[in-house]
Amino acid sequence: MAKPFVTISMSSSSPSLFRYPSTNSKSMVGFLSHSPKTNLGISLWEFKTSFSSSFQSLSLTRKHCRKLFQVRSVTAPSEATTGFDDMVSETKRKYYMLGGKGGVGKTSCAASLAVKFANNGHPTLVVSTDPAHSLSDSFAQDLTGGTLVPVEGPDSPLFALEINPEKAREEFRSTSQKTGGNGIKDFMDGMGLGMIVDQLGELKLGELLDTPPPGLDEAIAISKVIQFLESQEYNMFTRIVFDTAPAGHTVQLLSLPDFLDAFMGKILKLNQKIASATSAIKSVFGQEDTRPDPAEKLERLRDRMIKVRELFHDKDSTEFVIVTIPTVMAISESSRLRASLKKENVPVKRLIVNQVLPPSASDCKFCAMKRKDQMRALDMIQNDPELSGLSLIRHPLLMWRSEVFQLFSS
Ligand SMILES: Nc1ncnc2c1ncn2[C@@H]1O[C@H](COP(=O)(O)OP(=O)(O)OP(=O)(O)O)[C@@H](O)[C@H]1O
Predict the structure, then answer these.
(1) Which ipTM was obtained for this model?
(2) Distance between CA 337 and CA 343 in Å, rounded?
(3) Is the pTM of this model over 0.90?
(4) Rounded Cα–Cα distance for residues 38 and 9 (Å)
């Protein structure tokens, strides 16, 4: 039997796998019933890493999952569950991208929505690509390390993953620098082909490398998740919830393939020069060139970026859900986000308005003022040409973090 972990590789282009953490947070702070890890829990993930045997082992995993994950009884505010029935009804795989202004509750909603899906029979993966991860806080489990961690509680398997976008960016840098940066220059210099290095200067690769567009790291992270989800091992996941980085970045990542096209054009031009130079050297010295081809790697990266863009545009499988709060500023920003997403043809159907004051018979002075402000902001939504057509899901402002987690769970 294979060892109980396999890793998600952030660098390989082959599908990545789970790693069951050796330790797990024991504090489930309120909202998740704590069930300490048992031997059963560990053996659960002893599935084989070979692709040929994966199907069988994963089936085994699912069976055990049902035993391991305890049915959690949670009561959701009825308003919070409205509008989500159609999100859980289809059996086909669906991707939900939750995005919005910083701090409005994207992570809380993503975590909570993922629990809702899992409790409704969908094996679910919730992924954070936000550089300021707080998914670990939401689940009170350590999710760092770029591996899939099982979340305890829901009826169906729920896994969470925090991806370090910095790591993804670093990977891009090192690959592209090997291709167009100092690595190549040193190599060419060593071969006495300085004049080609001079020509490389014209390509201005350095400038591109120094100013990668915002969203690149997030796009790389998303593309990696999509890539491994395509493999047979991960067919089981029917709902994938992404907790994305604050608003602007997400839209910018959609234009990444264009950036990469420009970048790739240069890289490929460079690669041709190198290929002809090295083949000339090989013909003289009869040497085998065993160096890996970074340009090929970049090409694959660009292809993956294109897939991410396609996924964002696929109305059948993907939905971008805007999360906001009832303040004039947040609503204005959400309207701009919706406009940019519309321009990019990204499907948006729902708007979650989080932290709405619950009804009260006796407001204090502060609460009364706050409520008035919120009413004004909610009115704005009704009159906003970008937002008024979306189906609105209102979430109450809750007192306790444990309740926040229950927003969608029922
Ligand atoms: N409905 C709610 N009622 C009360 N508190 C809430 C609610 N939703 C979220 N919060 C709290 O607001 C804070 C920010 O929430 P969260 O981290 O989910 O936002 P975010 O949009 O993901 O933030 P960031 O952009 O920094 O990633 C957290 O402390 C969370 O517990």
Answers:
(1) 0.97
(2) 10
(3) no
(4) 26
